[in-house]
Description:
About 45% of the residues lie in helices and about 15% in strands. The protein is of the alpha+beta class. Strands 1, 4, 5, 6, 7 and 8 form a 6-stranded mixed β-sheet that branches. It has a 5-stranded antiparallel β-sheet with strand order 9-10-11-12-13, with no helix packed on it. The protein is flat, with a radius of gyration of 30 Å. Iron/sulfur cluster binds next to helix 13.
Amino acid sequence: MKRFVEGVDRSQNVLFPARLDDYIEEDHPVRVIDVFVDELDLRGLGFAGVEPASTGRPAYHPATLLKVYIYGYLNRVQSSRRLEREAQRNIELIWLTGRCIPDFKTIADFRKNNGVAIRRVCSHFIVLCRQMKLFTDTVVAIDGSKFKAVNSRDKNLTQAKLKARLEQLEASVARYLAELDRADRAHGRVPAIRVKHLTQKITAVREQVKQLNALGKVMQETPDKQVSQTDPDARAMATHGRGSGIVGYNVQAAVEATHHLIVAHEVTNEGHDRHQLTAMALRAREAMDQDTLVAVADRGYYKGEELLACEQVGITPLVPKPLTSNSRANGRFDKRDFYYLTDRDAYQCPAGEQANWRMRTIEGSMNIDVYWSSACPNCPLRDQCTTARYRRIRRWEHESVLETLQCRLDERPDAMRVRRQTVEHIFGTLKAWMGSTHFLMRTLPKVATEMSLHVLAYNMKRVMKIMGIKPLMQAIMV
Ligand code: SF4
């Protein structure tokens, strides 16, 4: 017999369970949120409103609102307006809040006013993971990714953009003026309304020029010569795709290699990763409570001072060197073709000659030793080596740190694969959860709060998967 699955008759009487608790299974993820928040010392974490006020309308307990947010971020409902709607119709959220239905303003204000405390909750979950012995490995992968801010590209101004826009506007004014001249010469053949329209356009463009010039003055006073009009902390950042730069934030994450949990994260508005390695590795080591740590990162983190700082604090970096040699690009020998002779403090060049130490220079804060060989002018390989009379080889005073790093990388050819597999998918997952507009809040501290909620939700989901719901709840309640 052919048939479909039938729904029930809407007018039929039904006996739904009378207890709210009967709607939520014993191993439902929402129970983890409930137990986790109930076990938190909200006052100690710095949440406002833990004590009810003696006057006025009773407020919602911060635990209720925190549960709403954690639920929202676990289920891709980050907006306060959508959370208000969900609190009215979603049985899981109704169970979680005990039928409290805070309005969107209350929900939004809670996230806005308790940023620091919410960030501490995220760190507290990492501490829990550590207590549950989830950080057994001492390898972390560090990476950064650009996340979009609430600021369109048009509302971000750099010197180059300002120049281009002013040129465009000037060209428009010139075009409209030429049309007005033509209308004058046409002796009334151009309708008056067209002339009026052109005049209005010229006024509007001149007003825009005035505004842009005013913004240009503000821009000149900023350290990085950049202005974002909607979110003042957001910055224009280049991404991998050609012409696909965004205005946003650079989110750094340190992810441990066994369970892929985010042990440390940071939101910055620096468009590159070069200054982040030591700070992120130190945070990760502290979060994991380890004495030693191997920090794997991509070429974007390669910076001599950062690598040295890591070594000095007992962190072992694994970062490949960027391939930026002009000599190699032009088909000439690059620095890898020269071998350092430690006992002689000299280099052996591809022609077998010895390049001796000649002088020391200071570049930025780095002491650089310079070597060259007297044999260069008569060398048969000179065309493959240099365009100058002598090939100069430059060596940082701590170059041995970089050489040791390279040896370490040679011994671990899978390091970059481990890095990719550990950290990259996390950014993809978080961005998919966030949707096409990544952050909903403006300014760095608020965006950092939002990111903490995302990271907390991500880690919670991972631990639920790794341990199971009931064991996790038991571990939280211990
Ligand atoms: S040009 Fe100088 S440094 Fe280069 S291979 Fe010849 S001798 Fe060596």
